[in-house]
Automatic annotation (TrEMBL):
It comes from the Eukaryota. Residues 1-24 form the signal peptide. The keyword Signal applies. It comes from Staphylotrichum longicolle. Keywords: Signal. This is Rds1 protein.
Length: 380
């Protein structure tokens, strides 16, 4: 009897051991090169909770706020298939690391006086801290929305335009409006209505940040007309941020960012552009030597401008490219407000993501001078 019981206990031990190790193995393997601190984040009740804690608004330290101070990926704690919207939240979390780090590094790089000397309000840096805290809250919200069967991506190393307060704030303005525009697309990828609502709420927060910058920093009318710009191909905007990520610095367990991605050539306006407002003629520039668009001789290509809830297409002459540069006149019919999302497509209206061959570029119309500088490759 006792021998049988011992055998039973051994079987039970083996069974338990296997059942547990099937889940625990990926975690224990990573503990050899990660501290294990990040694994605590798998519990959504760990640390300050967004909506219950003022940490994500009123933390005034310079050091990274939680969970931005824990940059490792968080490994799955359960086995099983991913939840329906996990990939969408993973894309959002990877993008959020870029945005959070942008604010964090600005807070570290510039002093209150730097902003004042450049002509900006005395409380500029404090607002940037508050925005940074909101972005830390986004990190936590997105971590919590990814189910326990999927990895929560960690931070990479990034490079940002940190040379001058003015250039930094210019980049901030286009980053916030780009966040808003990509969220109008990302919300269309989410399958679960609650998640769609949560993403809409996040995009409202980015819009509030943008409105502050437009009114207080740039002293312009903050309104963008009756609707902000809807752009359906969110991952194309996410991919256009790849130049900010230092190659080879992402945790190698992170999922591809963004997923899926098309590796489309970047699209800018050439340096001789003197306006990106409706009616202006610009020459297109594809700044990455290793990623140039390829145009078929017998296909008609279009520059497509998304604005508000519509898009306007302009046929372009690609014959002789790249020796003969491509020019386009920005449709004079567009309202000079908010943002345009511009791209090159092989069909009018870019009706599928596969029809896009270069871009998109996010073209800020407000303030117009800033939009021009940014689309030429930098605000300085
Ligand atoms: C991260 O920040 C939180 C809150 O400020 C703090 O409690 C925690 O110890 C920090 N963790 C690390 C690893 O720095
Ligand atoms: C675009 O404009 C430039 C001059 O700004 C000209 O050299 C070039 O030929 C034009 N390209 C086309 C396709 O017309
Ligand atoms: C652009 O607008 C056309 C209608 O003018 C529409 O058929 C097309 O789907 C729109 N493109 C996108 C990507 O929404």
């Amino acid at each position: 009897m006792s021998r049988l019981r011992a055998l039973g206990a051994a079987v039970m031990w083996l069974w338990n051991h296997f059942a547990i190790s099937a889940v625990a193995a990926p975690v224990s393997r990573v503990l050899t090169y990660y501290s294990g601190e990040a694994q605590k984040l798998a519990d959504p009740t760990y640390g300050p909770i967004p909506g219950l804690s003022d940490h994500y608004s009123s933390y005034w330290g310079i050091e990274r706020p939680f969970p931005g101070n824990i940059s490792d990926p968080v490994f799955p704690t359960e086995e099983g298939p991913p939840a329906e919207d996990d990939a969408t939240w993973q894309n959002l979390l990877s993008a959020e690391w870029i945005i959070f780090e942008f604010y964090q590094q600005g807070v570290e790089r510039f002093t209150d006086e730097d902003f004042v000397k450049a002509g900006f309000p005395t409380y500029t840096r404090r607002r940037l801290m508050e925005i940074r805290n909101n972005e830390a809250g986004h990190l936590r919200i997105f971590q919590n929305q990814i189910s326990p069967t999927s990895i929560k991506p960690g931070a990479c190393k990034y490079k940002f335009p940190l040379d001058s307060p003015r250039g930094y704030l210019g980049f901030m303005t286009v980053m916030e409006i780009s966040s808003m525009a990509f969220l109008t697309g990302l919300v269309q990828e989410a399958k679960i209505p609650w998640n769609q609502g949560a993403m809409a709420a996040i995009s409202q927060t980015e819009a509030r940040h943008e409105v502050w910058a437009l009114m207080d920093i740039w002293k312009v009318d903050p309104f963008a007309g009756p609707a902000d710009t809807v752009f359906p191909y969110a991952n194309q905007i996410l991919y256009s941020t790849h130049a900010l990520v230092v190659p080879g610095t992402c945790p190698h367990e992170n999922p591809e960012y963004p997923h899926p991605r098309q590796l489309l050539p970047d699209l800018w306006a050439s340096h001789d552009a003197n306006s990106v407002e409706p009616g202006a003629r610009i020459t297109l520039s594809f700044p990455e030597p290793d990623n140039q668009p390829v145009f078929d001789d017998d296909t008609q290509y279009y520059a497509v401008f998304f604005h508000s809830v519509l898009n306007v297409s302009v046929p372009i002459d690609t014959e002789g490219f790249p020796e003969r540069p491509i020019n386009v006149t920005i449709p004079a019919s567009l309202e000079r407000k908010g943002v345009f999302v511009a791209l090159v497509a092989d069909e009018p209206g870019a009706p599928t993501k596969e029809s896009v061959v270069a871009g998109p570029a996010v073209v800020l119309e407000q303030p117009a001078e800033l939009g021009l500088a940014l689309v030429k490759g930098g605000p300085n």
